[in-house]
Amino acid sequence: MTRPRIAPVGTILLVIAAGACGPAGKSPPRAAAATVDTAAVMAGIADLWDRWATADTSENFEAILGMMSESVWVDARGFPPMTSREAVRAVFAPLYAQVDYLEASATPQITVAMSNNLVNQAGTIVERYTVKGRAGEMTDYGRYAASFVRGADGRWRWGYMMAMVDSTVTKK
Amino acid sequence: MRYLLFAALALAAGCARAAEQPAAAPAVPDSATTINAATELARRYTEAWLTADGAAVAATFTESGTAAFLGFPTTTGRQGIQSLYASAFQALGHPKGGLLSVRLARAVAPGTLGVLGTSWDTFDSSGTARTTYWRWAATVRQEADGQWRFAYLMGFPDSVTRK
Fold it and tell me: Residue B80 to residues B5, B51, B118: CA-CA distances in angstroms?
């Protein structure tokens, strides 16, 4: 099983702080808003991509679905907008069954941690695969833009994904 | 790509005997404001697009914004985006029509929106009107001048019709 190559580049920390009243204040001191733990957020997203690559190359489509929020919205070129995990399942399950993924990797290029529970990211994706019953190997080179959300269970999932294949190289 | 690093102001509430002013945190826009901001940006983009002016379209992006369209390289920086659009207009000519529409807009943080939309554009292709229908996704930010602009815009064409 090929290990994914993840090379996150560039993050921005958003810090929101609120001040408190003086010692004889009539109102209770305001709690400071949470500082974004960039390292933890980045590690969480990298882990998600790691798990995606493992599931993709294991043809574990259910695991990939589990990495999407229930109300995920997916805009993938060549397919109608999918606005739930079940919609993604309905569209992609039959297609997924026909493909053997040999290699999958994502390279984030822009990552913005909006909070400890929301990350926007854009980057490139490479997937190498064969289609069952057909000779040859194909490699898709594409780009993505995504929003990741962290749920109550602490796990990061796709909340939104736009993906497009820029080119496909076929090796016979 | 470099986003502006910004920090919310820490407002210390005065503790004068007079009634205190509550410290104001940056507001996350309500739904109506969000939709209006996104729709207004879409309107400005469409208006600029219809002039076939690369600089005008690029002005709807932040200085360090990124455009990622199928068929074109990912381009970061207003200057590069201006060149991108200028080259496209040079190749395709003046658009005969077009419209950028908002499907969904959501406030994700103070001064930042996530927006999904569709668009269409029509160019003359050797006497035939060629209309391309697109889907797009964007991060939109409110800048110091109060204007909302694209910080990131990705789009791909779904279909083309010819008449």
Answer: 21, 19, 23
Site from A111, A120, A124, A161 to mutate, B interface, most B CB atoms within 10 angstroms: A120
CA A103 to chain centre: 17
The kind and range of the H/E element at A167 are: strand A156-171
Predicted confidence pLDDT, tens digits, chain B (163 residues): 333 333 333 333 333 333 444 444 446 667 888 999 999 999 999 999 999 999 999 999 999 999 999 999 999 999 999 999 999 999 999 999 999 999 999 999 899 999 999 999 999 988 889 999 999 999 999 999 999 999 999 999 999 999 8
B98, β-bridge pairs: B121
With CA atoms as reference, the chain B residue closest to A25 would be B15
Question: What is the reported pTM?
Answer: 0.81
Rg (CA), chain B: 19
Strand spans (E) along A77-155: 99-113, 118-131, 137-150
Which among A10, A109, A162 has CB closest to B137?
A162
Strand order from edge to edge, sheet including B75-76: B75-76, B61-69, B148-162, B128-142, B112-125, B97-109
Residue A158 Cα, gap to closest chain B Cα (Å): 14
For this complex, say whether ipTM is above 0.95: no
